[in-house]
Amino acid sequence: MLDRITASLPSLAPAEQRVARLVLSDPRAFAHLPVRELALRAHVSKPTVVRFCRSMGYDGLADFKLKLAGSVSEGVPFIHRSVDSDDKTSDVMVKVVDNAVAAFLQYRNAASTVAIEQAAQAIAATWQTGKRIEFYGAGNSGIVALDAQHKFFRLGVTSLATSDGHMQVMSATLLGPGDCVVIISNSGRTRDLMDAADIARKNGATTIAITASGSPLAAACQVHLAADHPEGYDRYSPMVSRLLHLLIIDVLATCVALRIGPALQPALEQMKNNLRAKRYTG
After folding, report:
1. Cβ–Cβ under 8 Å, residues 205 and 176
2. Which end of the chain is more exposed for a tag (fewer CB within 10 A), N or C?
3. DSSP letters spanning 140-180
4. Per the UniProt record, which residue ranges are transmembrane (predicted)?
């Protein structure tokens, strides 16, 4: 991205060139500063900052800054480097956090909003008709399934979550038209999850996969939310894929909440009041 800005310098207006040089001199600061501060530093107007972003092919300043932050994060020294036994605690912290941030930004830039829209619409429709919503996962993905159940339950969406393969197959057998199941797997090759997806789909339920692109599970489900982050299986490999899956569940839950809309408000308020009373009494 920075190379492209450098190559575009001669074709930019003089004021926009000042913005471009500000980006090139300190891309990290540009990605996080408000437009007023950016305009002051470049000695231009705020509209000029926005025009520069659009001349570079982005929708506006927000879109430009988001892509710039991703480019900068993917270029920091520790990205995609594994933790090893010689690392200091400060090295470990930077490597683990920066790898997670890079994975999130890569997902943001590559995610299919069409697939997210389809998944959110399917879950909201299932909730509105009172049908079953279930979350399946194995191992670390089982933890994500339980987290998903918790997040959706707080929206007033009753669901079931299980990480047991036998339970998944039995539960999928009871699903039918109008029901919805979200299946979470990093590899997308777990036998029990594949069986459960196949059974649920044959029974007429909507199947949603959060898994790697090109995996058998991705092909077996009607809706695929791509989560592409291969894990290293050495001793010190951070579980970035689990964090990525949790992020996708957050996005999905938020989209569903917006679709359910005002009907949620009374239940959410009552839930907050009950939890607050339980937590702080005595």
Report:
1. yes
2. C
3. HHHHHHHHHHHHHHTTT---EEE--HHHHHHHHHT--TT-E
4. none
